[in-house]
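Example 3.2
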Amino acid sequence: MAGRGKHRRPRTNPLTRGIVAVGTGGAALTLPLLGATHASAAEPQSAPAAQSVPQAAQPAKSLTYTVVKGDSLARIADRYDVRGGWKQLYKDNRAAVGANPKLIHPGLKLTVKATKSVAPKKTATKSSAPAKPAAKPAGGVAQATQASAKTYANNLDGWIRESLDIMAQQGIPGSYDGIYRNIMRESSGNPQAINNWDSNAAAGTPSKGLLQVIDPTFAAYHVPGTSFDPYDPVANITAACNYAADRYGSIDNVNGPY
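Structure, written as tokens:
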């Protein structure tokens, strides 16, 4: 008699039965017990960059400007932030300036369409109170006060001296006597002198000013800081001396037409 349980089919775990499916050829297809899903958190979107709102353009304010010594259209346009720069300023004032935008005379009235306010220059006023004496140090010697800005007389002597100071800053050689000698030969000291009869005049470029400089030479040897007007005494002297230094070594070496 067979022992109990000898041929008993072993029990199959219910969980195991759930994952085995009978197929042909002895192959079994396994199926997952659980269909797990994975949900990822949505990444927050960054806020769009704030768009800058362009500022409204500063409205242009029309004003009347009086040209002073040393002015140029470019300098005036830059000072008042004229839209379109010196070309627009020239276009607005062509009737007053004339055919050459480089030739503007002191006292000329210009219409300026300014987009920037410029504070007026302060003028010195006399005080009714007496000036206080300079404080003396313990030794009893008065301290030196700061010297005022150098001024020049508005005559031939003053023009030559101002030119010489500018020439010294620019490294342009020349002496008072050399400049004076050539001025007296060329124009007799008349800053408005013009030669309308020589070959330069026939070519359309008459000699102008104290040292009788033609426009192309004046433009080529113009010294920064001086007027662009060839009739301006200081600008004319300084440009002529700059030219003479380049061609002859110095205005002192010029003793005739140059």
